[in-house]
Fold:
Amino acid sequence: MIQSYQKHLRYYTPHHFVFYPVAIFLTATAVYFSFTRPETALWIFIALLLLLITWVSYMMRQHYALTLQDRIIRLEVRYRYFTLTGKRLEEFEHELRDSQLFALRFAPDAEFVALAEKAHNEKTGGDTIKKSIVNWKADDHRV
Structure:
């Protein structure tokens, strides 16, 4: 699949289309039973437990994967900037927002340095950087 700004979201089928629908269905069923069955307290407890399990699994999956991905992207952006310019990105990296750094990963080498310096000098946002990319560089291995 050719990646672009419009098509850069990625889904993990077992998680997004199996686990969460099943978890939502079970939670909704427990909520329904809590209003229609005589054991209301038990079904409310089951519904809350399922809701908590679903929420915790979502937060942990997101947190672990995104934290690791963010660290890798920072390293990649630093490496690419150093390779292309011979200068260290760390000199002004602290002035860039995460969204700016993460958007730069989609820029090909020919556009990367100009966009990085524009992000630093003009404080352009991550979405603006993504929309400025002429030849989108796909990131097919992200979480």
